[in-house]
Amino acid sequence: MKHLIWALAIILVASLNNNANAQTDSTKKTNKGRTSFSIGIPNGIEIIKNDTSSKNVRSIKDKDVEKKKEEDDKKVKTYMTMMDLGLNVLDDKTNYQSVGVKNYMHVPANQQNGSLFNLRQWKSINVNVYPVMCRFRLLKTSGQKIYFSTGLGLQLYNFRYEQPIDYSKNHYVSLDTISIGKNKLGMDYLNIPLMFTFKTKVGKKDWLVYGAGLTEGYLISSWTKQVSGARGKVKVHDGFDFADFNTCVTAEIGLEDKFRFYASYQLTSMYKNDLDQHPFSFGVRISGI
């Protein structure tokens, strides 16, 4: 009996397929999609109509996009890798007449000024990398969203000096006596950001993204790298009388999923001594909250 039922089922499906093939021309006129039939075994015979018209495909894609947006907009979400790439500028507030500064700068008197620390601007790079960020949604309306986020990352400063500055392990700065092709100072901070991000709807699908916050950093490495014909490449790791901690105020602005710019200003001085210099960084936020 079971074999007879399956035989009848196969004959029925074959008959339906033949009828469908006979009506192909009329189907093409009324439907740009494709009509097909399939057997659902062992749950019996199931006739399925597949409509792959461009209209339905667009509808499915739109639903997928909306579903993804809903997933991305959970109340609590973990993000992998937020990254910034930009340039460094030095805001120098040093009083070069102070005794402490003069004792730290072992250079001729006419060079004891801010020009000693002039940078090769386009080669002074800032990179911020946050492998893991946790975002908390504080507000969501049809036209406004507010988030708070924090995480753990690295804040990397590279300063390329025009002058042949030499940071000595004896904790003073001097000028080298040879010609130096590359003179770089690197400072690497372990960094915790505390950020508020706002998203305001400005079009049918566009959201203006802007925000501000603070970062707290701990200096995990500072080093100099000099390249010269006389000595080759020389790299020295030391504290160089730099401050152990830094605090920065940060901001960003852009259009979601299109572009973002960031800026960061260090509120605390780079140094433990009387030099009073504050890095200012700005550039492109490659990926963000």
How would you sum up this structure, described in words?
The chain has helices at 2-22, 24-30, 54-72, 99-104, and strands spanning 38-39, 45-46, 76-92, 105-106, 125-140, 144-160, 165-167, 173-175, 182-201, 207-228, 232-237, 245-255, 259-266, 277-287. It is an alpha+beta fold. It has four helices and 14 strands. 18% of the residues lie in helices and 48% in strands. The chain has an eight-stranded antiparallel beta barrel. A three-stranded mixed sheet has the order 4-8-7.
From the alpha-carbon coordinates, what is the Rg to the nearest angstrom? 32 Å
| Contiguous helical run count | 4
Low-pLDDT stretches are 1-9, 11-16, 19-49
The helicity comes to: 10-25%
Structural class: alpha+beta
Secondary-structure element order, as H and E? HHEEHEHEEEEEEEEEEE
Oligomerization state of this entry?
Answer: single chain
Strand-residue fraction? over 45%
Short description:
The protein has helices at residues 2-22, 24-30, 54-72, 99-104; strands at 38-39, 45-46, 76-92, 105-106, 125-140, 144-160, 165-167, 173-175, 182-201, 207-228, 232-237, 245-255, 259-266, 277-287. By secondary structure, it is α+β, with helices and mostly antiparallel strands. The strands form three sheets. An eight-stranded antiparallel beta barrel has the order 3-5-6-9-10-12-13-14. A three-stranded mixed beta sheet has the order 4-8-7.
Topology:
Elements: H1 2-22, H2 24-30, E1 38-39, E2 45-46, H3 54-72, E3 76-92, H4 99-104, E4 105-106, E5 125-140, E6 144-160, E7 165-167, E8 173-175, E9 182-201, E10 207-228, E11 232-237, E12 245-255, E13 259-266, E14 277-287
Parallel strand pairs: 4-8
Antiparallel strand pairs: 1-2, 3-5, 3-14, 5-6, 6-9, 7-8, 9-10, 10-11, 10-12, 12-13, 13-14
